[in-house]
Design goal:
Blueprint: H1 3-13, E1 21-27, H2 36-52, H3 57-65, E2 75-80, E3 85-90, E4 93-94, E5 97-102, H4 107-114, E6 118-123, E7 130-135, E8 138-141, H5 151-158, E9 164-168, E10 181-185, H6 190-212, E11 219-224, H7 226-236, E12 242-247, H8 254-261, H9 278-286, E13 290-296, E14 302-303, E15 316-317, H10 323-336, E16 340-344, E17 356-359
Parallel strand pairs: 5-15, 6-11, 11-12, 13-16
Antiparallel strand pairs: 1-2, 1-5, 2-3, 4-14, 6-7, 7-8, 9-10, 13-17
Length: about 350
């Protein structure tokens, strides 16, 4: 799937929302103690939505029934106006926030949707498949989201010998004096049966991956023994993901192999256009002048993933007229008028973190 096709899908998803939309972002708690942190956070978010947007019934209903196990990755986003509702899962961890009476606050979801430094990685092994999330040099084990079987359970379920029948070696009523029991396979040998079991296992794992990953996930990286990865990729080739194979043997040091696989991820390149004032960019976006909008990663409102993540969540309310809201409004206008969206790291360009644009005229 091309970047432009993906952006068109995103653009279409929010085309009907009005400038009276409530937008809520909720991160998955960094520290999970029997779901206690989530219950506290959920109550705080529900209270904030009830205070600022009491008519947002869709959002309130979803939040009140949402459990820790319902997180597909590291956060959720909810949007609601009078006629439209939408919920999405984020791979990255968003800043907890709410905006009301504004266009959909899409910046965190858009950054997550377009992220090139976040990768889902499936370690394929017969013993037990494992799911990982790689983000900015860090690897997090997300296997608890993967309801995949172990190979032994698939093997037991298939009962290879069920395709074999036994009988005594005799003809008619005259029993052979040897009376030896013989068996015949019903059209399949052990090698063929092993292949069938392998395929059943890979299909079960593929289905579990579909259930575990956020819908916006476009690419799945597969790592493991070369033959295992190759066979699994053939089974999953017809699915919804672009598959990237990485060959690394053994179950030990999987996280190190994953980091090595992404060690050459490109960083920011190319020249940035000159910065413009936000009001000028807003006018240009409204007039359809913006061909490409460049957003600093600081506008993404996403939190870095690391092992020492703080368990305390500060819920932010972005008010009308704030920089965050105006940056989002400009982005929405540019997107609606067909602009491309690029994210950049200001420090990599020795530049000020501000919105920039290539103009069509």
């Amino acid at each position: 799937m091309s970047d432009q096709t993906s952006l068109d899908t995103f653009r279409h998803a929010f085309a009907e929302f009005s400038d009276k939309t409530t937008s809520v972002y909720v991160p998955r708690p960094a520290i999970e103690i029997g779901g206690e942190k989530w219950r506290i956070l959920r109550k705080n978010v529900v209270d904030a939505v009830g205070k600022h947007s009491p008519d947002a019934k869709f959002i309130l209903d979803r939040l009140e029934s949402f459990e820790l196990a319902d997180f597909r990755a590291n956060g959720i986003a909810l949007f609601e106006d009078k006629d439209n509702q939408r919920m999405a899962h984020l791979t990255s961890r968003p800043v907890a926030s709410i905006t009301t009476g504004e266009p959909p606050f899409i910046l965190p979801l858009l950054a997550d949707f377009q992220s090139r430094e976040t990768h889902w990685v499936l370690f394929v092994a017969r013993d037990e498949p494992r799911l990982f999330l790689y983000q900015g040099g860090n690897v997090k084990d997300m296997t608890d989201r993967l309801d995949a079987p172990k190979y032994r359970s698939v093997e037991a379920r298939r009962h290879i010998q069920d395709d074999v029948f036994f009988h005594a070696g005799s003809r008619g009523s005259a029993r052979d004096s040897d009376g030896r029991s013989v068996f015949h396979s019903l059209g399949s040998g052990q090698d063929e049966e092993r292949d069938k079991t392998d395929r059943a296992f890979y299909e079960d794992v593929a289905n579990a991956v579909d259930d575990a990953l956020p819908q916006q996930t476009k690419t799945l990286h597969i790592i493991g023994e070369e033959s295992t990865v190759g066979h699994f990729a053939k089974v999953m080739a017809a699915g919804r993901y672009d598959l990237v194979q990485h060959h690394a043997g053994g179950v030990n040091e999987v996280e190190a192999h994953i980091k090595e696989a992404f060690s050459n991820d490109p960083v920011g390149d190319g020249q940035l256009p000159e910065g413009k004032s936000l009001p000028d960019l807003n006018d240009a976006a409204k007039a359809g002048q913006v061909g490409t909008l460049y957003l600093p990663i600081e506008c993404a409102h996403l939190e870095e993933m690391h092992d020492q993540a703080d368990e305390h969540v500060k819920f932010r309310e972005y008010a009308h007229g704030s920089d965050e809201v105006e940056q989002n409004r400009t982005t929405m206008l540019a997107l609606a008028n067909g602009a491309d969206i690029n994210w950049y790291e200001a420090h990599e360009h020795d530049a000020v973190a501000e919105l920039r644009a290539d103009l069509r005229w």
